[in-house]
Specification:
The chain is an alpha+beta fold. The chain has 6 helices and 9 strands, in the order E-H-E-E-H-E-E-H-E-E-E-H-H-E-H. It is 23% helix and 28% strand. The longest helix is centred in the middle third of the chain and has 16 residues.
Length: 239
């Protein structure tokens, strides 16, 4: 599975909240992308949402994740004449005008977890988006340690719904904006911001930090964003 990540930010220090009309147009654009298996829209959690790294930079006003079984489906949508050009900062969606886009396609490793009985809500779930923007001295050894040791701890978080680890690869795209080459991104998903806050206040976070200090050498640190998450109904799923 492949995933296209796009983070949108305003040029200045002040962030904005996207209006409902712009969010609806963004969702409509994503729903129309051929070949997707899933599309997620992430927005900032309410002010004061507790998480384990409150001193990290604030999350973006908008982040999207688009999943496809073939990288070509994402690259086709990102062509200079492709569907996703509607998300351009000089495109038709008013709320995105002037924003700066940071984008990357990655390989997805979705890790199995034991489900719990509560039905999954369809709106305003909460994701913990993490990225490692730098470089490891030995990237293969770094990923090997992370994938072998960190997910078994992640699975202990109370009420965690999803765990993903994404690693970088080469890709083709024509959407204006910055291309980044982060070595890894992760996503933990919960049913609500309260569930996320409770999980990240649990003793599991101490195990995560202890393993973090055992990582092979790397530079660049990491960044954590709690974000409200909505799944976009896809046109292909309805056909």
């Amino acid at each position: 599975m492949f995933c296209y990540f796009a983070h949108f930010r305003t040029p200045g220090p002040t962030s904005v909240l996207l209006d409902a009309s712009s969010l609806a147009r963004i969702a409509g654009t994503l729903a129309a992308v051929p070949g997707l298996s899933r599309a997620l829209i992430h927005r900032p959690t309410p002010a004061g949402t507790r998480h384990a790294f409150p001193n990290d930079e604030a999350g973006p006003p908008l982040a999207i994740q688009l999943y496809a079984g073939r990288i070509e489906a994402l690259e086709e949508a990102l062509r200079v004449d492709g569907v996703l050009q509607a998300l351009s900062p000089d495109g038709p969606i008013e709320g995105l005008r002037g924003m700066r886009v940071q984008q990357q396609i990655m390989l997805v490793r979705a890790l199995p977890i034991e489900p719990f009985a509560t039905p999954v809500p369809q709106a305003d779930r909460c994701s913990y988006l993490v990225h490692y923007p730098g470089q490891a001295a030995d990237l293969s050894a770094w990923h090997r340690h992370y994938i072998d040791h960190h997910p078994p701890i992640m699975r202990k978080f109370p009420k965690v719904r999803e765990i993903e680890i994404c690693t970088r690869l080469d890709w083709i795209g024509g959407l204006p904006g910055m291309r980044v080459d982060f070595m890894q991104r992760n996503k933990l998903m919960f049913d609500s911001s309260d569930d996320l806050s409770a999980a990240l206040a649990s003793p599991v976070i101490r195990e995560m930090r202890a393993d973090f200090h055992r990582f092979p050498e790397f530079a660049g640190g990491n960044v954590h964003y709690p974000m409200l998450t909505n799944e976009v109904p896809l046109a292909s799923a309805a056909s």
